[in-house]
Amino acid sequence: MFDWISLASKALLLLILIYSSSFMFSSKKWSPKGLHVYITGGSQGLGLGLAKLLARKGAHVSIVARNQTKLDNALKELEANRQSPDQVFKAFSFSLNTAEGSAAALQAASDAHGGQVPDAVFTCAGTAKPMYFLEMQPEDLSRGMENGFWIQAWTAFAAAKQMVRENKKGGKIVLVSSTLGYMSLIGYSSYSPPKHALRGLGDSLHSELMLYGIDTHIFFPPTMYTPGFEEENKTKPVITKAIEAADEGLTPDQAAAGLFSGVEKGQAHITADFITSVFRASTRGCAPRSNGALDFVLDLIALVGIPFWRRSVDKQVLAHRAEHREYLRSKGLVD
Amino acid sequence: MFDWISLASKALLLLILIYSSSFMFSSKKWSPKGLHVYITGGSQGLGLGLAKLLARKGAHVSIVARNQTKLDNALKELEANRQSPDQVFKAFSFSLNTAEGSAAALQAASDAHGGQVPDAVFTCAGTAKPMYFLEMQPEDLSRGMENGFWIQAWTAFAAAKQMVRENKKGGKIVLVSSTLGYMSLIGYSSYSPPKHALRGLGDSLHSELMLYGIDTHIFFPPTMYTPGFEEENKTKPVITKAIEAADEGLTPDQAAAGLFSGVEKGQAHITADFITSVFRASTRGCAPRSNGALDFVLDLIALVGIPFWRRSVDKQVLAHRAEHREYLRSKGLVD
User: How does DSSP assign B140-164, residue by residue?
Assistant: First the structure.
């Protein structure tokens, strides 16, 4: 949906990146070597990509997901990325959408490391089910919040409490939102609210957990070519697919690399693609900034470009009216 | 918390407002005269302020809240604002935090008007309970979502479906977020997420409900001197109060006037104070715009001013560390 902006400004971005990178390697980078990292949704997609990357960086890795078979397969992939015989890789099967489930999963992973809370907690679990608002049952909307927000919030809740109890300075909580945590469009009324909510949670915790020396990060990935993406496409409205047709996505490994790079550099809001970076800059508000010069240019690009995008999307939606009315009729939703 | 920015730029804003107002009265304004408006949280605060204003504008007004005594008192206030003997004012006692409760309340108000869904639905219901993340029980976090998001989302859900079934072109759904739907800070981890989620919902519905000719608006009020505000202050952390000490708030009537003015002009994102307007402009992303020139200047103010604000707030939080540790100890939360 954003191809106009890509064509116009990728070159500009490159220049700025080169320019701004000179400011970046001044502060010390975070290294996960020898640390215990905890990754929810670690059996596939972004979570698995991140788990493998952190294994290669020398971390002890705990992954959590529901499906034991997928966890077993993921553990095999972690083994293939092992750097040292000392590294501990463990998988835990838990359902994370309740406070109790998330607390129990974190406790199990802590118990495997002498009862100590992990050094860094990455909440990559979550699913989306795009569909028309008009077609939803109440459960579709509430499950959206459960699978998009609570599944991560409860882990952050348990981890923050335990990190403070153990006075774990330098502990990290890393949430995973989405481009749709910065913006929204037709078809995402059950997904964009939880992803926005995660941003609200991340920004609150960033301000609050600095009291304890705990860092909060939040990642906003674009479309990722994961099993979850294939699942989403089964219910995604045709108009939403049409709007997104020109979008470029990331592989789980690319997204994981972007997430890790942002955490390494200490960025509070992390983006790994150009378009989401434009949205980051133009919705930054008082989010902690990593690179003011870059954000300024991206914000200018947004100021000029996004209104054109908005207008073209609105036009597409309005042009879809008659076809949509037919669709609603076929579903018995209108006479 | 924002006094520096106020001092520096109110004069500038005034100039821009005068300049930009010349663009504004071109399109036809919305008039509620003779329409049926439905207001949740209508027995006090913003909801009551809005109900009285719409009564003065000649609308039929239905208000919904839980407490019957407060509803009765509110009805008396509406009577005092009556313009014509034909106006119908009704009060409905319902609990709105479930899909069923919200649907039943809307149905009751529709039944009082020949079974027709209201012409405009304003979701003003909601409460906040600011507190430290570390002090929360899981219920505090989930109740925050219920009382900040679901209490409005379920009404929007029921109203959108009914408006489409009745093919109610020009129908309006107006959500009420908060300045904390654009930004966040320490103490608001149960409130900022639902208020961000409302923004996600509002932006999704704005894009989707245009299929049916239904308008979606969302209002972002700052501190309002309401009974709810007094309630919030009972649990608000001292550091949050200190950060907010210099903030100026609005009376419920001022906020209602700002909300109405934005709806009248067809603004998708509505703000009624300078600071929230700065946050609106600097978190605009692809939100539909009402005044690009004004937003551009506000965004520049944000680019320069907000980093200073951020730094000063972070400093305040960090300076509070020792005192906070004592507080946690006194509560038995750390050793």
Answer: HHHHHHIIIIIHHHHHHHHHHHHHH
Residue B53 near residue B251, CB atoms below 8 Å? no
pTM value? 0.94
Asked if B186 and A167 come within 8 Å (Cβ–Cβ), the reply is no
Quote the tokens at residue B62.
């239905």
Q: Do A167 and B283 touch (CB under 8 A)?
A: no
- φ, ψ for residue A250, nearest 5 deg: -120, 150
From A130's Cα to the closest Cα of chain B, the distance in A is: 11
Q: What is the dihedral of CA A75, A78, A79, A83, to 10 degrees?
A: -150
Q: B180 CB near a chain A CB, below 8 Å?
A: yes
**Is the pLDDT score of B310 beyond 60?**
yes
Q: Compare CB distances from A182 to B183, B285, B303 and report the shortest one's residue.
A: B285
Rounded distance between C-alpha atoms, residue B280 and residue B305, angstroms: 14
The stretch A247-276 carries a mean pLDDT of: 96
Express as a percent the part of chain B with pLDDT over 70.
Answer: 92
| Annotated catalytic residue within B168, B191, B236, B327 | B191
Tell me the mean pLDDT in the region A25-48. 92
The share of chain A scoring above pLDDT 90, in percent, equals 86
Q: Identify whether the C-beta of residue A207 lies closer than 8 Å to the C-beta of residue A153.
A: no
Q: d(Cα A236, Cα A180) in Å, to the nearest integer? A: 14
The CA distance from A202 to A217, in Å, is 7
Q: Given the structure tokens 């609570």, which residue do they identify?
A: A150
pLDDT, position A120: 98
Instruction: Quick: pLDDT tens for B45-99.
Output: 999 999 999 999 999 999 999 999 999 999 999 999 999 999 999 999 999 999 9
Which amino acid is located at A50 in the chain? L
Q: Give the count of beta carbons closer than 10 Å to the beta carbon of residue A316.
A: 15
B/e letters for A233-266, b = 16+ CB within 10 Å, e = fewer, are eeebbebbeebbeeeeebebebbbbbbbebbebb
**Amino acid found at A83:** Q
Of A160, A195, A285, the CB nearest to B200: A195
